[in-house]
Automatic annotation (TrEMBL):
Residues 28-341 form the Carbohydrate kinase PfkB domain. Belongs to the carbohydrate kinase PfkB family. GO terms for biological process: AMP salvage; purine nucleobase metabolic process; purine ribonucleoside salvage. It comes from the Eukaryota. This is Adenosine kinase. The lineage of its organism: Eukaryota, Metazoa, Chordata, Craniata, Vertebrata. Its EC number is 2.7.1.20. InterPro entries: Adenokinase, Carboh/pur_kinase_PfkB_CS, PfkB_dom, Ribokinase-like. It is found in: Nucleus. Keywords: ATP-binding, Kinase, Magnesium, Metal-binding, Nucleotide-binding, Nucleus, Phosphoprotein, Purine salvage, Transferase.
């Protein structure tokens, strides 16, 4: 009998955002100075937009943010028991925060949010025009996570201790690197699996110091080809743009827990996924998909990680983890936003 999920075995911490998507027209984009296909952080001129889009006739809400997306997909892949995934992050005490709680519950994720009153709940508006999506993220409360007031509390730390696998997207390095370090050290000292995502080129560039403090505790490093290239450049890996070589060098960076060899997994969109297995770098081909079936590639990276984690937490092989990652990404890119059917069809 293969092991299955156990409650709270997977722990994620990150920036929770309420995804709000609605179909808008060109006038709406022009009003807020948006491009049809783009991803930006909200500025002051966008603040009123979130309430305006929420008043549109057909609006959809989903629990979002990179890490939350991944643990949500891992839970969907596992199905039962519920609450295999725990999630920590900061929200506001407002209407959007209540919707976010409800959506996390519907996804069967054990979300334990830190709520504060200074900032409203973080949101990501997806303004849809035809086949295009313009994403505007307002981190707001997500930036206010407080280690002393949440992670360090006995009841919350017990959930960290209960977990076997930890996953944090690099985006959270901009919010609470000290929280990441505390979790990473716990994982390392107890020979559990700590995984981190490079998340975006700007993290390797501007939050390099925080990232490299965490790196010695990283057992699994995720990223895509663009993030890997930026990381390599910032690390001064001699002139190489060979993704397999970058993976090999990232694997050999200093590591605290010697009982586990670091695994590096880099996705490349429709091209092969690159992973280090032992001393070898192996290529895994992704599932074929007709270009016409692709609706939205935005959540593909989060979905890949979610699929991967769903098998990892059940102690499956690296090959099986990657196969599940490819399956989840293949499902997500056929749909708008990071959404999925009721049940996975994963053998």
């Amino acid at each position: 009998m293969r092991p299955t999920g156990v409650e709270n075995a997977l722990f994620g911490m990150g920036n929770p955002l309420l995804d709000i998507s609605a179909v808008v027209d060109k006038d709406f984009l022009d009003k807020y100075g948006l491009k049809p296909n783009d991803q930006i952080l909200a500025e002051d001129k966008h603040k009123a937009m979130f309430d305006e889009i929420a008043k549109k006739s057909k609006v959809e809400y989903h629990a979002g943010g990179s890490t939350q997306n991944s643990v949500k997909i891992a839970q969907w892949m596992i199905q039962t028991p519920h609450k295999v995934a725990t999630f920590f992050g900061c929200i506001g005490t407002d209407h959007f925060g209540e919707i976010l709680k409800q959506k996390a519950e519907e996804a069967h994720v054990d979300a334990r949010y830190y709520q504060q009153t200074q900032e409203p709940t973080g949101t990501c508006a997806a303004c849809i025009t035809g086949d295009n999506r313009s994403l505007v993220a307002n981190l707001a409360a997500a930036n206010c996570y407080n280690k002393e007031k949440h992670l360090d509390l006995d009841g919350n730390w017990e959930l960290v201790e209960k977990a076997k696998v930890y996953y944090i997207a690099g985006f959270f390095l901009t919010v609470s690197p000290e929280s990441i370090l505390k979790v990473a050290k716990h994982a390392s000292e107890n020979n559990k699996i700590f995984s981190l995502n490079l998340s975006a080129p700007f993290i390797s560039q501007f939050f390099k110091e925080a990232m490299m403090k965490v790196m010695p505790y990283v057992d699994i490093l995720f990223g895509n080809e663009t993030e890997a290239a930026t990381f390599a450049k910032e690390q001064g890996f001699e002139e190489t743009d060979d993704i397999a070589e970058i993976a090999r060098r990232a694997q050999s960076l200093p590591k605290v827990n010697k009982k586990r060899q670091r695994v590096v997994v880099f996705t490349q969109g429709k091209d092969d996924t690159v992973a280090t297995i032992g001393e070898k770098v192996t290529m895994f081909s992704v599932l074929d998909i007709d270009q016409n079936d692709i609706v939205d590639t935005n959540g593909a990276g989060d979905a890949f990680v979610g699929g991967f984690l769903s098998e990892l937490v059940q102690e499956r092989t690296l090959e099986e983890c990657i196969r599940a990652g490819h399956y989840a990404a293949n499902v997500i890119i056929r749909r708008a936003g990071c959404t999925f059917p009721e049940k996975p069809d994963f053998p």
